[in-house]
Design goal:
- The complex is a heterodimer.
- Chain A has two helices and six strands, in the order βαββββαβ.
- Chain A has helices spanning 8-17, 73-84; strands at 2-3, 22-30, 35-43, 48-56, 62-64, 87-89.
- In chain A, strands 1-4-3-2 form a four-stranded mixed sheet. Chain A has a two-stranded parallel sheet with strand order 5-6.
- Chain A has one domain (2-89): Beta Polymerase, domain 2, CATH 3.30.460.80.
- By secondary structure, chain A is of the alpha/beta class.
- The longest helix of chain B has 29 residues, at 88-116.
- Chain B has helices at residues 43-46, 56-60, 67-82, 88-116, 122-142, 164-187, 190-196, 204-210, 215-218, 226-229, 250-274, 327-333, 335-339, 347-354, 358-362, and strands at residues 3-7, 10-11, 16-17, 19-25, 28-35, 151-152, 155-156, 295-303, 306-314, 319-325.
- A three-stranded antiparallel sheet of chain B has the order 1-4-5. Chain B has a three-stranded antiparallel sheet with strand order 8-9-10.
- Chain B has one domain (40-328): Cytochrome-c3 Hydrogenase, chain B.
- In chain B, 52% of the residues are buried.
- Chain B has 15 helices and ten strands.
- By secondary structure, chain B is of the alpha+beta class.
- In chain B, 47% of the residues lie in helices and 15% in strands.
- The chains are: A alpha/beta, B alpha+beta.
- Chain A binds chain B through residues 21-25, 27-31, 38, 40, 44, 47, 49, 51, 70-72, 74-75, 95-100, 107-108, 112, 114, and chain B through 35-37, 40, 42, 44-45, 49, 208-211, 222, 224, 229-230, 294, 298, 307, 309, 311, 313, 320-321, 323, 325, 329-330, 333, 337, 362-363.
């Protein structure tokens, strides 16, 4: 299911009301010309999964936080911020979770050069 | 006045390199923040630079207590992306080996949990002694004691040898006698009961909201098991019991794993009965694969620690992107919620009952 970024919070709330209460995973893919954030939700009673995809332009990377609807999103959102540089709005400033990078380079972006000696924090 | 203390990152009870920053109100935990990332190797980025079949050894190092389960998940993801069928006999063999791996992992869990509670050596040594028997079986089947790399596209590296079934069934008979001993030793032990029963309760709704999976979720009363609810291989054809407990405490999480070991043994026996004759070897390892263009596949598996899921965008010859849902990453995230309000000494049994492997948390 593809949704617009602005409608993400409302869509996920609707999904939650219709029984999709379990957040399996939030992840993202860098397709060079655009990025895609993927939210995989599960209906625990019907044993059904659905994925919600949000398209993002590389120059304008932000998403609203869904932590109030899905507490499980917490660390996934921090991971997205660190690995892809997607700013998650509505969160307080976080300590870096996984990587101790200086915050200017994002390892899972395609532009990240393999083997280059990036500066550590 | 809160006191802040630091535990780890190098500490025998943190199950690897995990640092816990604990805010204490007297002796009561007000907040516990896990600091992770000490073992972050960037596996998700690394596999983007490797051909498909160069990656299984990296995958095995994710969950080093149950390496085969992650290896199998990765190979299955590649098989799904490339549209490769797995031989029927190989599917049964994978199930048998994965369940053996699950028993070994749960025995490790029992050893580590009792160790966390200061019951070094009896529980620890018992768990490790019996785990070693299972590892010996896996060594017999694959040639390696811990890091197997015995999956190939469409099958296994080699078929089981002639006596393997007998050896497994003999060990299962032995384990059948051992498990009641564990139960007697732990569940009749007042110290073990006091330190786990009613400690670290995770309620059903919180477990769903926090996204925990595997034994932690099932011990909180949600009987979700990927093997049954999103079945793969021949799990749906087996006589497979629904398992869950309503306690939600550390004791339930321990108890559920003991129940799972029994269930695994039944699955192994049944799989041997149903396994067809023939050959289970897969394709020769070759680096060049039929071309695929950005095909998205999602594969989930019930690994010993919970639901491991791989989201792969398959590119030409290499994964374009591989995203791994690690069950322990998200189970560890729930630690703060579970441990709040308990005494500091209870933190270790709670962390132990979550059964974390830091390599899989950090990836």
């Amino acid at each position: 299911m593809k949704v617009e970024r602005e409608d993400l919070g409302r869509n996920l709330s609707d999904m939650k009301r219709s029984g999709y209460t379990y957040l399996v995973k939030i992840t993202a893919v860098d397709y060079s010309d655009h990025l895609e954030a993927i939210y995989i939700l599960r209906n625990m009673d019907e044993r059904k999964d659905v994925s919600v995809e949000v398209k993002l332009a590389p120059t304008d990377l932000w998403l609203d936080t869904v932590i109030s609807q899905f507490p499980a999103a917490d660390w996934y959102e921090r991971e997205l911020q660190e690995m892809f540089g997607i700013l998650i709005k509505g969160r307080k400033a976080d300590r870096l979770l996984l990587e101790k990078w200086d915050g200017r380079e994002y390892p899972l972006r395609r532009s990240f050069e393999w083997g280059k000696d990036y500066e550590r924090m | 006045m809160l006191t802040r203390i630091n535990i780890g990152p190098i500490h025998p009870s943190t199950h690897g390199v995990l640092r816990l920053v604990v805010d204490l109100d007297g002796d009561t935990i007000a907040n516990v923040e896990p600091h992770i990332g000490f073992l972050h190797r960037g596996v998700e980025k690394l596999v983007e630079t490797r051909m498909y079949m160069q990656s299984p050894p990296y995958m095995e190092k994710l969950d080093y207590i149950a390496p085969m389960s992650v290896d199998e998940l990765y190979v299955s993801t590649v098989e799904k992306a490339l549209g490769i069928e797995v031989k029927e006999r190989a599917q049964y063999q994978r199930m048998i080996l994965l369940e053996l791996q699950r028993i070994a992992s749960h025995l490790f869990f029992i050893g580590a949990l009792t160790n966390d509670m200061g019951m070094m050596f009896t529980g620890f040594m018992w768990g490790f002694r019996d785990r070693e028997l299972i590892l010996r079986l896996l060594e017999e089947a694959t040639g390696q004691r811990m890091f197997y790399v015995n999956m190939r596209l469409g099958g296994m590296v080699n078929d089981f040898h002639g006596d393997f079934e007998q050896h497994v069934l003999k060990t299962m008979d032995y384990m059948e006698k051992r498990i009641p001993e564990y139960e007697k030793f732990l569940e009749k032990n007042p110290i073990f009961k006091q330190r786990t029963k009613g400690v670290g309760v995770l309620k059903r709704d919180d477990a769903i909201a926090l996204g925990v999976s595997g034994p932690v979720l099932r011990a909180s009363g949600v009987p979700y098991d990927v093997r049954r609810d999103n079945p793969y291989y021949f799990y749906k054809e087996l006589n497979f019991r629904e398992m869950s407990l309503n306690g939600g405490d550390s004791f339930s999480r321990y108890r559920l794993r003991v129940m799972e070991m029994r269930e695994s043994m039944r699955i192994i026996r049944e799989s041997f009965r149903k396994m067809p004759e023939g050959d289970s070897t897969g394709q020769m390892v070759k680096l060049r694969m039929p071309p695929v263009k950005n095909k998205v596949v999602t594969v989930a598996r019930e690994v010993p620690r919970g639901e491991e899921l791989m989201y792969m965008v398959a590119g030409d010859q290499k994964p374009y992107r591989l995203s791994i849902r690690s069950p322990v990453f998200i189970n560890l995230h729930a630690l703060n919620h579970i441990a709040k309000g308990h005494r500091l000494a209870d933190l270790y049994p709670i962390l132990g009952s979550l059964d974390v492997v830091m390599a899989d948390v950090d990836r």
